[in-house]
Amino acid sequence: MDSVPRVALHAALLLTLFATTPVLAQSAGPTSIPLDEITVGGAAPPGAGTSPRPGEAAGSVTVPSIARQRAAVNATVGSVAFVDAADVQSRYANTLRDVLKDVPGVYVQERYGQEIRLSVRGSGIARGYHLRGLELLQDGIPLNLADGSGDFYQVDPLALRSIEVYKGGNALTFGATTLGGAVNTVTPTAHTALAPTILRIDGGSFNTIRENVQFSRISGPADFLLNGTVTNSDGYRQHEAQRTQNVNANLGYQLAPGVETRFFLGTYLTDQKLPGTLTLFDAFNTPRSANPSAISGNQSRKVETERIANRTSLVLDVGKLDIDTWAIHKSLYHPIFQVIDQDGWTYGIAPHWAGTFDVAGFRNDAILGLRAFAGQNTALQFVNIAGQRGAPTANALQSASNYEAYGENRFWFLSDLALMTGAKVFSSNRTYSNKGGLPASPNVQFGNATYEGVNPKVGLLWQPLPDIQVFGDITRSRDVPDFSDLVQQNTLRTTFVPLQAQRAWTVEAGSRGRVDRLAWDVTVFRSNVRDELINFSINPGLNIPAATFNAPRTVHQGVEAAVTLDVVRDLTGAGDTVSVAQIWTHNDFRFVHDPVFGNNRIAGIPDDVLRTVASYRHPNGFYLSPSVDWVPRGAFADHANTLRVPGYALLNIQTGIDFENGVSLFVDARNLTDARYISDISVVTNAAATAGGAAALAAFYPGSGRSVFAGVRAAF
């Protein structure tokens, strides 16, 4: 039986399982658990309360209000987080780190420019570039390429209205079942925008200047929004200049009561110079320098991406049906060790139904979905001659396809206790054809791999009070290798390596809630992983893509915790507030009886990451928020655990004022002590065995030094 009929059979069985309950009763009801806003990670404006903000009271069929978005996230049986983008308006938000740094369990560090490391529960832990093991979505629609790979250049923090983080198997609501889960970035519509018109300009250190404009209107059944951002920055390091132009737009139309269609459009232009990695000595002594090979090869990443997507939503007698379609065109010119020249399309369709109904007098919440998406990518490579194409070295075609069916059900067998069950079945194919350097070359390489499986989930949710939840669940995840894993470069040629899919069982338990002045969000988890996709850099200094292997057994376990306390209220008798937030992410990721690495820690991510935020806010709009980012011990640079980078602490201050007329001023000062530290690492197998020893290993990205950014924003 071939893969498509097989997954179709699995899908039919799954849909039958979840579709039998609605026929028992069809009473309309809310599609999520009402849960008051819980701010636990310092993400909210200092001292902010729970009063409605602009854009919260409205919504539409295709994109619900912020309050309903938040409630839907908090209804998840498992560890999740919700960030209202209104809470980060007072920051210089250049990357997703500036948006997600207050979310426990999310490890996000800058490498350079817009390039970051984003990892949840050790997803893509050893990969020193881009994204793996985590699904990135915009408005619930995938941004990843069809093979699962992705980067961050399409996400403009100034074009977001909210960010939803679904850790691990909790991303099943979108059909994602990777180890890391999913991050859904939601753009504003004219119904949810903070204001009809927003103008913003900010800038500061490293010759940074950025302009942003947003304009939206509602006219009868139609509405539209346009958001544009232009960023120019020389960057902290030599050869790190960033030039980006992002445009996001959406147009909605109410076809009939309860029926709406919305088109999402976007174009994203990025020209990012790459400074490369340094030795540990150079990273601490000359952190603003670039790797000599990055300069001689004029290493850079030029990306042109166009995206069109549509969501058509229908409110039914029971629940709501969303039908998503999308197409993404991406062109990449990427001179590194060679010139990587790629052009490809990704396209897909995904119907999704969610509803609430009664079963024998008990409340039942259900989600059903299908996803079919595919893509082709022409992958050419050339000798790099100072950033220009030289002789061709590869002429390949990469094709990926995915067929998925998923469902999730919450059955409230008691008024405050729900049983959650769910599953996803999938079939994914990866096909690679390389004709060699010249089109007429007889050296044709072909690779084909198909991955199939079923990922179940079961859990319990207890909600003793409206603002308190306790949960526990067990989920199965599978990470299918992407082409960066499957297509590996050695000294002789490019080769297709048929790796196994990474599989894991994850157990988690936690609680989130608020009692008076105290709010919390705490989860503990353990993932037993088989065939983990582990990367190591062959030569970090030359930016040669990492090699990947399957580690037989590994374990990922940790703690994701955030606690916020309003320490003082009415400090001056005027309704002002002093609050303190503590965010702690504990990572214990290690091999298990590995034939090479024993029980060593998996390199790349530190054991503990802590962030403390103290905040003061006055009713007149003034706020002051110092914070400390603390890594007590740095990460290992190699899987052999022979070299660990030092820990560090960074002192930051944010301050500003929001005037009643919609004008806001802010200052965002970072690393005020100008501390020298390692922000990220291109992991190797054994630093001590590197040619020249660990001192010669150029595998380290120095963190940015002292910087100050300021801006003005007008909303009217």
Short summary:
By secondary structure, the chain is mainly beta.
Kindly describe this structure:
It is a single chain. The protein has 716 residues and is mainly beta. The chain has a single domain (3-275, 283-347, 359-715), classed as TonB-dependent receptor, beta-barrel domain (Maltoporin, Chain A). Helices cover 6% and strands 54% of the residues. The chain has helices at 3-19, 66-74, 97-100, 280-285, 292-296, 483-486; strands at 80-84, 106-112, 115-120, 135-138, 141-142, 162-167, 181-186, 197-204, 208-219, 222-233, 242-256, 259-273, 278-279, 300-315, 320-335, 338-359, 362-385, 388-414, 417-434, 445-465, 468-479, 487-489, 494-496, 502-515, 518-536, 547-569, 577-591, 608-617, 622-631, 648-658, 663-670, 678-681, 698-702, 707-715. A hairpin with a 3-residue loop joins β8 (197-204) and β9 (208-219). The protein is globular. Residues 1-34 and 41-52 have low confidence and may be disordered.
Tags for this model:
disordered N terminus; Maltoporin, Chain A; 54% strand; mainly beta; single chain; 34 strands
Largest sheet: 22 strands, antiparallel, barrel
Total beta strands: 34
Strand content: over 45%
**Number of separate helices:** 6
What do the pLDDT scores average to? 89
What structural class should be given to the helix and strand makeup? Answer: mainly beta
CATH first level: which class? Mainly Beta
- Percent of residues in helices: under 10%
What CATH architecture label applies?
Beta Barrel
Based on CA atoms alone, the radius of gyration comes out at 25 Å
CATH homologous superfamily descriptor:
TonB-dependent receptor, beta-barrel domain
Q: In angstroms, what separates the terminal alpha carbons?
A: 60 Å
- The domain tally reads 1
Fold-level CATH name? Maltoporin, Chain A
General form: globular
Question: Can you tell me the residue ranges where pLDDT is under 50 for at least 5 consecutive residues?
Answer: 1-34, 41-52
GO molecular function: siderophore uptake transmembrane transporter activity
Pfam families: Plug, TonB_dep_Rec_b-barrel
Protein name: TonB-dependent receptor
InterPro entries: Beta-barrel_TonB, Beta-barrel_TonB_sf, Plug_dom, Plug_dom_sf, TonB-dep_rcpt-like, TonB_rcpt_CS
